[in-house]
Amino acid sequence: MSKSLKGFLVLALAGTVANSAMASDGVIEFTGKIVAASCTVGPGPGAGTLNVDLGEVSIAKLDDNSDVKIPINFKLDCKDKSSGVSNVVLSFKNPQVDGANTKLLKITGTATGVGIGLYDDTNALVDLGNAATSLTKPLSGATPLWTADFGLKAGYVKSLAGGATVVTEGTANGTLPFELTYN
Question: Which long-range contacts (CB under 8 A, 24 or more apart) does 159-165 make?
């Protein structure tokens, strides 16, 4: 047998061994669905931006736990509702939470000792510090205008974060990123 034929046989045998080492142990099956559903958020200056003015709240109202909650006009316009899609899910994306109470949104500004609380439609404080927190609402209405209303409210809540021992006056702003998904 010639040297070149022997070399070819050795390479063929090596290829067979290599192929058997890469044998399949299983498969990954992907499933999913492409939907036309897409909602716009309003009102606001830009797509997906809601402006909520919490107003001026006295420190005394925070001290006596007065109910100072502002409704958030978080209306969704879902014109492109697809068949099989009946709910909108609102989840919060890496919010900066308050150091004393992780259910609250951390404020920026000059005030101290407060955070911003987000309340659901049952008046329960939404746990912003829990990554699994989401709110689901059904789409309602009829073609061509489908809507979903989360019934959210927001307000300042005494927290005494960052070592603060009292609430001090000043600006108290916050930003809460969110994401909408459909099912």
Answer: 159/98, 159/99, 159/100, 159/101, 159/104, 159/113, 159/114, 159/115, 160/100, 160/113, 161/98, 161/99, 161/100, 161/101, 161/106, 161/112, 161/113, 161/115, 162/99, 162/100, 162/112, 164/112, 164/113, 165/113
Cα(126)–Cα(104) distance, rounded to whole angstroms? 8
Residues 6+ apart with CB under 8 A from 81: 36, 37, 139, 143, 146
pLDDT above 70: residue 66:
no
- Asked whether the predicted pLDDT for residue 5 surpasses 50, the reply is no
Query: Using one digit for the tens of pLDDT, what is the confidence trace for 68-126?
Result: 788 887 667 666 666 667 888 889 988 999 988 999 999 999 998 899 999 999 999 99
Residue 9 binned pLDDT confidence (cut-offs 50, 70, 90): very low
Q: Report how far residue 150's alpha carbon sits from residue 72's, in angstroms, rounded to the nearest whole number.
A: 9
- The size of the chain, in residues, is 183
Which residues, listed in sequence order, are joined to residue 97 by a DSSP beta bridge?
105
Return the half-sphere exposure (C-beta side, CA atoms, 13 A cut-off) of residue 68: 19
- What three-state secondary structure class fits 71? strand
What are the chain's domains? Answer: 55-182 (2.60.40.1090)
